[in-house]
Amino acid sequence: MQFTPYAKGLLVALSLSVMAGCSSSGGAQDGDMDSASSGANTAGMNTGANSNANQMSNATMPDVRTIYFAFNKDTIRPEFESVLMGHAQYLKANTSANVVLEGHADERGTREYNLGLGERRAKSVARFLTVQGVSPSQIEIVSYGEERPAVQGHGESSYAKNRRVVFDY
After folding, report:
1. What is the rounded distance in angstroms from the CA atom of residue 85 to the CA atom of residue 114?
2. Does the structure show a pLDDT above 60 at 94?
3. Cα–Cα distance for residue pair 160/150, rounded to 1 Å
4. Is residue 106 a contact partner of residue 146, using CB atoms and an 8 Å limit?
5. In whole angstroms, what is the distance from residue 72 CA to residue 38 CA?
6. What confidence score (pLDDT) does residue 5 get?
């Protein structure tokens, strides 16, 4: 079967438009994580699995600005995912806003190791935010290691409060 040049062009254009309409934007970036963290405390945040641009423009800055980590870990704990989702929604809705993620560690370990651990923790939070659609240009990372403790002391309760990332807007 022979096609005229006009029919070939129309066929190619139709194929391209179908392919463009089927492209995906990545799922979790569209707010799919909201349903996974249902039941978590989200006071002061505009959340929901069906977020749209109208809701996003009304996002408020979350009240919780510190998340904590387990000993010698840089993985985000599940109880802080809703806090991070709130920060992601705020940053996406306010593209002129910037945040400095300050990574911290407790006093155990060498100064160099703790600086690296603080940086890994801040990078872990930054990675979470960018997966949710926050522009990397809105995020800056700083590590203070053990140099700026939130609590003085040498017990586990003090150490637990010093293993953190702080959101500084």
Report:
1. 26
2. yes
3. 10
4. yes
5. 28
6. 55
Extract the tokens encoding 40.
């978590």
Residues 36-91: tens digit of each pLDDT: 333 333 333 343 333 333 344 457 999 999 999 999 999 999 999 999 999 999 99
How do beta strands 139-145 and 99-104 pair?
parallel
Place of tokens 């009304």: 58
Q: Look at strands 66-68 and 139-145 and give their pairing.
A: unpaired
Tokens encoding 74: 């840089």
Residue 3 φ/ψ, nearest 5 degrees: -110, 145
What type of residue is 131?
Answer: V
What is the residue whose two structure tokens read 């920060």?
87
pTM: 0.66
